[in-house]
Design brief:
Layout (H helix, E strand, L loop, with lengths): L14 H4 L18 E2 L11 H7 L14 H11 L6 E4 L1 H13 L5 E5 L5 H8 L3 E5 L8 H6 L5 E7 L11 H10 L5 E5 L14 H7 L3 E6 L12 E4 L2 H10 L7 H11 L2 H24 L5 E3 L6 E6 L5 H10 L2 E2 L1 E3 L4 E8 L3 H17 L1
Length: 371
């Protein structure tokens, strides 16, 4: 067989696909190949529930396809949150469902709106369907409801709101989320991404699930990847009106959630103590890191208040984010540098144990003093 001549026709990518830059995951190795403590991907440092581990080890027949509708899992989610299971759809992580939401309601010539600093997947979702991503102005890096509403145009089809926000970690309260929804045209879909909702302190509720239960243009997505510690199994879910759920069911993959993933998620839901411990340990260790960063304010370091399992540290003095990144790698830690998201002056640090946060603070102090 000979090679095809270079002047012959060949398959051509759509221009909006060719323009996509593939998602870049957080690093876990140093430049010398050393394995680092990975605090770059917002994974749960405590792993997952022992019940979930047991469920993963107990797969009766992996030769059979899983339940295509994740029936038992949807029923458990519905019982936990007071939602009709018919209004729940499960996905291969919340990413599949976010993609479905954008794919169903936006296309070439349309706009997908989000805050300037948002989950890095959002612009990819828009690009995959030929839509244009539009970034609303930020309020000192945080999402701003007024700016989001001001950025809405007749071409806006979907608004993506991660709450808590990634990578900044800030959170919009119920009043602000309701203000955002009330200001949107009824034919614009508001997607509220609750990836980090389980890390919120008890009593904190942005009202997203309540809106999804009553409003025809609100979809809420959640994931088992963060506080539940099942990132490797890729399990997410979404809820909204029957029409919105129907749209996602049309687009999601067949047999999209593995049998192991469904069993693990069910088991994880039966162990709320694990999630509560993860939340409480995260709140304590996050507060420790935030205090240490505040103490380095004279060196130009600061962080935004976070409600997630990470802290965004801004470097506005002699010590640059890139230099701090190298210092942390030398000290054995991988964190996330985000120049591709317009944050060359920042590092996103996943919250680990209290000891790890103390060690990171000590490394940053030493680097700041030497800069």
């Amino acid at each position: 067989m000979t090679d095809q001549p270079s002047n012959q026709p060949r398959p051509t990518m759509k221009p909006w696909i060719e323009a996509i830059h593939a998602y870049v995951p957080g690093k876990s190795k140093g430049s010398d190949g050393r394995e680092l403590i990975k605090l770059s991907a917002n994974e749960n440092p405590f792993g997952c529930s022992a019940k979930a581990i047991a469920a993963l080890e107990d797969i009766a027949n992996p030769a059979l396809y899983p339940d295509p509708d994740s029936t038992a899992l949807r029923e458990a989610i519905g019982e936990a949150h007071g939602i009709d299971p018919a209004r729940i759809v499960c996905g291969a992580g919340s990413g599949e469902l976010l993609h479905g939401a954008v794919q169903a309601f936006a296309g070439a010539g349309d706009e997908v709106l989000c805050a300037r600093y948002s989950f890095s997947l959002y612009p990819l979702l828009a690009a995959k369907v030929g839509a244009q991503v539009v970034y609303a102005d930020d309020d000192d890096h945080a999402p701003d409801v007024g700016a989001l509403l001001a950025a809405v145009t007749p071409r806006t089809r979907v608004v993506l709101l991660d709450n808590p926000n990634n990578p900044v970690g800030t959170w919009l309260a119920r009043e602000e989320v309701e203000q955002l929804h009330a200001g949107l045209p009824r034919d614009v879909l508001l997607v509220i991404d609750h990836a980090y909702a389980e890390y919120l302190a008890p009593g904190m509720d942005d009202g997203g699930l309540a809106l999804a239960a009553t409003q025809e243009n609100v979809l809420v997505t959640r994931t088992f990847s963060k506080a539940f510690g099942l990132a490797g199994e890729r399990i997410g879910w979404a809820t909204g009106t029957p029409e919105l759920v129907s749209a996602l069911n049309r687009l999601r993959g067949a047999f999209n959630v593995t049998a192991a993933g469904q069993r693990a998620a069910l088991a994880a839901m039966s162990d709320p103590a694990f999630v509560e411990r993860s939340r409480d340990e995260n709140i304590a260790a996050r507060a420790l890191l935030e205090r240490e960063i505040q103490a380095l304010g004279n060196y130009g370091l600061r962080s935004k208040p976070s409600e997630a399992n990470f802290v965004l540290v801004l470097f506005e003095g002699a010590l640059s984010a890139e230099a701090a990144l190298h210092a942390l790698a030398e000290g054995g830690y991988a964190v996330r540098h985000l120049p591709g998201q317009g944050l060359p002056h920042a590092l996103r640090i996943t919250i680990g144990t209290a000891q790890q946060m103390s060690e990171i603070a000590a490394i940053l102090r030493q680097a700041a003093e030497a800069a």
